[in-house]
Write the structure tokens for this entry.
Amino acid sequence: MSTWPDVASDDMYTGSILVTDERMSLETWLDFHRATLLRKCAGLTAGQLVTKSCPPSSLSLLGLIRHMTDVEGWFHDFDGEPSAPFYWREDARDAAFEPLDPATADDDLAAFHVSVARARAAAAGRGLDDLCPCPGCDEPASLRWVYQHMIEEYARHNGHADLIREAIDGSTGD
């Protein structure tokens, strides 16, 4: 494909969370941030997606998609199945950001959707106080903490994505 597609309607933030319960608030904010990252990539060519933010940074929109594909793995631990990172490696913790090949952009987008779908399925039916092992932590993490961590992670990287997209074509906003 020459450009990435617009965000599908089921990936969009569509509801109000001004008055809702905690779980719905967490899920809705996370979905909003997932969709925001995809909107930052929509309509760009694969070459634009691998454009680096500014030297010496290795950040790019495709790198952020790949990084978040791995980070969704925080939820994967709740499904009881072993989870292997998509890009991250012990010997290359920033492997999601390098090397980037525009030819794999569609595959990277598909991997993002697979990771998000697995994350949603792993969290479904679980309580916010449910615990799972926390790689690199001294104690287990609650599902509530994972939601909060993921919202923070997306929000931070969406700020990066905002600046990268603006540098590419001047586009700004959510």
The chain has a mean pLDDT of 88.
